[in-house]
Design a protein that fits this description.
The complex is a heterodimer of chains A (about 100) and B (about 400). Chain A is α+β, with helices and mostly antiparallel strands and about 100 residues long. Chain A contains three helices and five strands, in the order E-E-E-E-H-H-H-E. In chain A, about 20% of the residues are buried. Chain B is of the alpha/beta class and about 400 residues long. Chain B is about 45% helix and about 10% strand.
């Protein structure tokens, strides 16, 4: 994933806070590829919300570094991992400039 | 009831959108035929949509839309299209006879996560006997043919009474033919109608002995024959220990579920992690449990949910049940349905449970003997083949 390309979640993945857990529920035809639930940890939920609004990998790394006071290298690895998992699950789209 | 330390979260909800149905099944739990009265008391699409927003806010994850037949409502599409995109794990129970082009298009755009289709027979003749409608069978087949094309998880659900008992094998074969991803469930027991339901289940349900005979056949098909086949190819596995484990697990499960009261209101999830909102707007423990209620459309869901336990007044176990160790399906709900009181003794359920317990003991003994015999003969065959080769 190019670090400065703007990415966004595809429509129909809904993040909800239920019983102290952050859960992503696919709705609509997203269930054709994944008819289940995804539980996110705190940092993943933080990133998920930003991606839902539309952002870049660079911005995600900056936001994570700032929010959790972590080393940018470590934050970069976490963001890359998370974005790559979302990509594999076909949950992302590239926003047109 | 004081729920003290019980942690209550309304995770799973049921919206009973209507008690009306286009079919007239002889064993229906809830159907009401008085359409004018029913229509007058049903909640509007706007009210259900608003209620969905409230239950989402309160933490509901799984939401079931059911009836009656929910698709009978002319405003079903309006209700569904709003609720389906809110972020629930959405399930629908339907008889699949009303899958019109409009409904199919709606489901294609926003498929529910789960669809349970109730099937009442394997022919138009049986459908006429059970539901009063012979063309419903063909309409159900057409409906299922459409629904199976959706990415939703599909489950065929059936309820067996005297009139469709002979069709069970054919329903099962047909359901299996839909594909391995399609589930198949047979209702464990038919209880008496509740909340003014007008069906005469008592006259049409299986006798306790017939119900247990049906269950034995299901065990044979689903468990005993596959297990016997397994031991035919794995004759060296010692099953005596395994069988002892199965019996122990069964006893533990009964002790855990059958007598569980701690952390619950009714001994189950009802009112603790699950609830039903009835077609006429009451919040109750489950579709059967209407011993008490609160009014979510009047007072708001969160207040209705929070107040619910204070309305519950449990009754002690019937004397005949005290000290009984037979696993059974008796609970506050089934006792209420069967006897009109949560403290009543449900004779039908009790008789069925005693017969079932005996059947299971006999079946386990038979299974053990059968597997030992199969393993022995398989080993002898293997020995004969080996000595031939030598």
């Amino acid at each position: 994933m190019e670090k400065d390309k703007k990415i966004k979640l595809k429509p129909g993945f809904i993040l909800r806070r239920i019983a102290n857990s952050d859960i992503v529920i696919p709705v609509g035809n997203n269930i054709a590829s994944f008819n289940g639930l995804i539980t996110l940890n705190e940092t993943a939920a933080f990133l998920f919300k930003l991606i839902n609004e539309g952002t870049t990998v660079t911005e995600l790394i900056e936001a994570l570094t700032k929010e959790y006071d972590v080393d940018p290298g470590l934050a970069g690895n976490d963001v890359d991992d998370f974005v790559s998992q979302l990509e594999k699950a076909d949950m992302l789209m590239i926003c047109e400039e | 009831m004081d729920t003290g330390s019980i942690i209550r979260i309304p995770l799973n909800g049921t919206f009973e959108l209507t008690a009306r149905c286009n079919l007239h099944c002889k064993m229906c739990l809830t159907r009401i035929d008085n359409d004018a009265k029913s229509l007058m008391n049903e909640k509007s699409a706007k009210e259900w949509i608003d209620m969905a927003r409230q239950v989402k806010q309160a933490g509901t994850l799984g939401l079931l839309l059911t009836g009656g037949e929910p698709l009978l409502r002319p405003d079903f599409a309006e209700i569904y299209s709003e609720i389906a995109s809110m972020g629930f794990v959405l399930s629908i129970y339907t008889n699949a006879t009303l899958i019109t082009d409009e409904i199919f298009d709606l489901f294609r755009k926003l498929p529910p996560h789960n669809i349970g289709v109730t099937v009442y027979g394997a022919s138009g003749k049986t459908y006429r006997l059970v539901t009063g409608s012979s063309d419903a069978y063909d309409r159900m087949l057409e409906g299922v043919d459409r629904l199976r094309r959706l990415p939703s998880r599909l489950t065929v659900r059936t309820t067996i009474i005297k009139d469709n008992l002979e069709d069970l094998d054919r329903i099962s074969t047909w359901a299996k033919g839909l594909g391995p991803e399609v589930g198949f469930n047979v209702s464990r027991i038919v209880t008496m109608p509740v909340r003014g339901g007008i069906a005469d289940a008592k006259a049409h349900r299986l006798s306790p002995a017939e119900n247990v005979a049906m269950l034995k056949k299901i065990y044979m098909d689903r468990i005993i024959e596959p297990l016997t086949a397994f031991f035919r190819i794995q004759p060296d596995i010692d099953i005596s220990e395994k069988l002892a484990d199965i019996l122990k697990e069964r006893e533990e499960e009964y002790n855990r579920i059958g007598h569980k009261q701690e952390g619950t209101i009714y001994g189950c999830e009802a009112g603790v992690n699950s609830y039903t909102i009835t077609w006429d707007g009451k919040l109750i423990g489950c579709q059967i449990l209407d011993d008490c209620c609160t009014y979510p459309f009047e007072e708001g869901f969160i207040k209705a949910w929070e107040d619910f336990p204070s309305k519950v007044k449990l009754l002690p176990l019937p004397d005949k049940c005290k000290g009984c160790s037979t696993p059974c399906t008796s609970c506050y709900a089934t006792r209420l349905a069967e006897t009109g009181s949560m403290g009543g003794w449900p004779e039908y359920i009790c008789s069925e449970a005693k017969l079932k317990e005996k059947m299971e003991e006999d079946l386990l003994k038979e299974l053990y003997a059968n597997i030992v015999r199969t393993a022995k003969s398989t080993k002898e065959c293997q020995k004969a083949v080996l000595s031939d080769r030598i």
